[in-house]
């Protein structure tokens, strides 16, 4: 399974994502990646966001995300999952987000 990060994509991000199963972003990278998120859906690439260390601001970007890591309790993760529609919300984890991808 090929996993790419924003920093690995280079000057032509869509070309850099070719053949990837996952695009992994940090929470701070979401705002600069909205155009890229449109292509992930078109190219069948799943999106994961490691949002630990900051509070996720609601927005359309959440519709493109399949897995997110947040700070907080399991109860807060479940509430966030219901509110955001994100399939897998992980809270209170010290693991790398890659260990939670499918």
Describe what you observe in this structure.
This protein has 102 residues and is of the alpha/beta class. The chain has one domain (3-95). Helix content is 25%, strand content 21%. It is built from three helices and five strands; from the N terminus they run βαβαββαβ. The chain has helices at 13-17, 34-42, 74-84; strands at residues 3-5, 22-26, 46-50, 67-70, 88-91. A five-stranded parallel sheet has the order 1-2-3-4-5. α3 (74-84) links the parallel β4 and β5. The radius of gyration is 13 Å and the shape is globular. The model has no long low-confidence stretch (mean pLDDT 94).
Topology, element by element:
Layout: E1 3-5, H1 13-17, E2 22-26, H2 34-42, E3 46-50, E4 67-70, H3 74-84, E5 88-91
Parallel strand pairs: 1-2, 2-3, 3-4, 4-5
Radius of gyration, Cα only, in angstroms? Answer: 13 Å
Query: If helices are DSSP runs of H or I spanning 4 or more residues, what is the number of helices?
Result: 3
Strand order of the largest sheet: 1-2-3-4-5
Structural class: alpha/beta
Structural domain tally:
1
Major sheet details: 5 strands, parallel
- Contiguous low-pLDDT stretches (5 residues minimum) are none
Q: Please provide the count of β strands.
A: 5
Tell me, rounded to a whole number, the average pLDDT. 94
Query: What is the 3D shape?
Result: globular
- Percent of residues in β-strands: 15-25%
């Amino acid at each position: 399974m090929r996993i790419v990060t924003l920093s690995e994509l280079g000057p032509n991000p869509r070309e850099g994502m070719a053949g990837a199963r996952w695009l992994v972003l940090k929470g701070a990278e979401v705002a600069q990646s909205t155009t890229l998120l449109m292509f992930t859906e078109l190219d069948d690439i799943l999106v994961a966001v490691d949002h630990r260390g900051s509070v996720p601001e609601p927005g359309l970007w959440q519709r493109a995300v399949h897995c997110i890591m947040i700070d907080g309790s399991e109860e807060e993760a479940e509430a966030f999952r219901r509110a955001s529609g994100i399939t897998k919300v992980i809270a209170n984890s010290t693991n790398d987000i890659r260990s939670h991808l499918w």
